[in-house]
Amino acid sequence: MSTGLECKDSYKYKWQGLRNMRKSNNWTQYMLDLPMEEPPGQRFEYCNGATYLLSAIIQKRTGMRSLKFAKDNLFEPLLPPITKRISGVRYNIESNSIGFTNFILDFGLKKNVAIMEYGLNERQNTVEIGLDGVYRITELPEEKIALKGRWLNENTFKFSNINVGHTEGSRGEFNFIENRADISLTGPYGDRLSLKATRE
User: Fold this and answer.
1) Is the pTM of this model over 0.70?
2) Model confidence over 100-149: pLDDT tens digits?
3) Which domains, and CATH codes, for the chain?
4) Cα–Cα dist 192/131, whole Å
């Protein structure tokens, strides 16, 4: 941050500037009224208010909340293009031995979370998958599970599952190729299962 403004917003000033800004009724106007201490770009000086002012400028210029602007223009473009192609699409699983019937993966509904809906033994379950390296816990009728996942490459989404309260878990991969999805699962004791699904 090299605004040149007299922010006085660091440990050197005991965050005097931040406290003054928080006391004001209009944070944007407070920042605009600050005197210039030196030309912009000459010296780094931490300033919380500069970040707030940037957010206010984005909202004024675009008519969007800064969080939505960042999500639409900064974060979502970083996701693999395939996420938009498969998001919310239903896949029907071919016959298998554990009772899965279908699944839907949805991205972007919540920050850092994907939603998976799947059929199992004539029951539909909806669970959250953390995309930020943190397990998201979902309480199902018979158990609690925690899931996290990430894209390994353009077509492969890897996930891991922990049954809350137990150390064992399972992991697997979704491989999306055109209108098909191949799913490989590894159980808590090393047992493996492969499923194939077709886009509806």
Assistant:
1) no
2) 888 998 887 777 899 999 888 778 889 999 988 899 999 988 788 899 99
3) 11-77 (no CATH), 82-199 (2.40.128.20)
4) 24
